[in-house]
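batch job 7 of whatever, protein = Membrane protein
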Amino acid sequence: MGSAKNSSEARKARVEEMRRAERSRERRNRFLTIGLSVVVVAGLAVGGTFLVRSQSDDGGGDTTASEGKDASGQFVTGDDGVRTWQGTLSQNHVNKTVDYPVTPPVGGDHNPVWQNCNGDVYTEAIKNEHAVHSLEHGAVWVTYNSQASEADVKALAEKVRSTPYSLMSPVDGQKDPLVLSAWGHQRTVKSASDPDVATFFETYVQGEQTPEPGAACTNGISETA
């Protein structure tokens, strides 16, 4: 009982810390935007281009795809039911449609702009290239197809809305009704009440698999496909 309580309290503290970090980044971005606007008005940045959206990415703004496949390998399923990608997941920024080897994708080349993932629930499909960038930032992506029950979709949406570094959207091309994805990891769940949902969130929201921990989940894109 005590262990469960301590785990719950640690989870709450972790979420609150992420919220504080997100608010801090938002304030920093607002100040940066204002500062850049002043510079532009003053005419001191003639010919310059400011990419405010990409300032939080240590990966830079490379828009040239690497030669060869952006993701090569295969899933290996563990005893816990989580499929882990064994192989290469490149992290290049590209302004093109990427042909991912699995649906939904769990990594690889992606758009320079991430999909907003601060508990964002999308009722229409989003572009894989933006969602993969969110996974790179440590988000968990909840997806569902037309076979998912309305009750499960509603319950999972509530879970996502209360969890920073998560997002949700429909993906008609996926095989199973309910799928949870993180960078390099994925699993199906039977329902919203499946205990594996909480376990996956606890493990992979800003988990050890995150290539860019602490990177923003706001100030990205909220557009659907």
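notes: Residues 30-69 have pLDDT under 50 and may be disordered.
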